[in-house]
Amino acid sequence: MIATWWAALSPAMKILWAVTLSASLIFIIQTVMTFLGADSGGDFDTDFDTSVDMDPTLSNIEGGSNLYTFRNFVNFCLGFGWSAILLRNSISSTAVLIIVSVLVGAGLVTLVMYMFKWLSSMQQNGNINVFKSAVGSQGKVYLTIPEARTGEGKVQISIQGAVREYNAQTDGDAIKTGTPIKVTEVINESTLLVEEINSYIV
After folding, report:
1. Are 156 and 123 in contact (CB under 8 A)?
2. In 68-99, which positions are buried (b, 16+ CB within 10 angstroms) versus exposed (e)?
3. 181 and 140 in contact (C-beta within 8 Å)?
4. pLDDT tens, 114-129?
5. Which site in 69, 85, 114, 144 is 20 to 30 Å from 122, CA atoms measured?
6. pLDDT tops 50 at residue 96
7. How far is the CA of 29 from the CAs of 34, 38, 118, in angstroms?
């Protein structure tokens, strides 16, 4: 039955169906990989300069906001193809059908780009920039901090309403577990310089 249906199609419709079904399959694979965290490199997002991003994580999800990507080409073919197939009996003019299909394809590309932009902003909001947010934050010592930067302890501080744990050093005397502290400097992404809150109160 399928073979008979396929044989009855015109060459143009065979091409249209082939492109549309291929785009649909790739779109499904891309979507599944995206939400399983294996996106970006795996979805062949490639600029027209043929550079390929091989990062297999969602950290580069904002790549979906780049107009000239294979993902957007697939999305356009998906919107264009299904529109042309579903509307070909409703729109008698081939020119109008093509225009409508192009608009639907472009609309789908725009929609997916905005979706990825939103996902990217959500991801960025979930990641705290310790260099911008930690200084001035207060918390308590979790593991005793040795004196004069001779070693590292651990502290728990509150940043943007969330409790985070970091390695910590101090320039002064050792600070014992449970002591209130304040962050004075960020040494690196995982280590803070802190001081006992009561140490500067006269």
Report:
1. no
2. ebbbbbbbbbbbbbbbbeeeeeebeeeeebee
3. yes
4. 887 776 555 544 555 6
5. 69
6. yes
7. 8, 11, 20
The domain boundary residue, chosen from 80, 97, 126: 126
Whether 27 is covered by a domain: the verdict is yes
Lowest mean pLDDT among 13-17, 18-22, 66-70: 66-70
Q: Which residues contact 161 (CB under 8 A, 6 or more apart)?
A: none
Q: Tell me the sheet residues that pair with 166.
A: 155
Average per-residue pLDDT for the chain: 78
Asked whether residue 172 is domain-assigned, the answer is: yes
- DSSP line for 2-43: HHHHHHHS-HHHHHHHHHHHHHHHHHHHHHHHHHTT--SGGG
Cα 95 to its chain centre, rounded Å, is 38
Pair (16, 107) in one structural domain: yes
Q: Quick one: tokens of 20?
A: 């549309």
- Tell me, yes or no, whether 50 and 138 share the same domain: no
Share of the chain residues as helix, strand and coil, in percent rounded to the nearest 5: 50, 20, 30
- Better-predicted residue by pLDDT, 133 or 77: 77
Percent of the chain with pLDDT over 70: 74
Q: Which amino acid is at 107?
A: G
Q: Does pTM surpass 0.70?
A: no
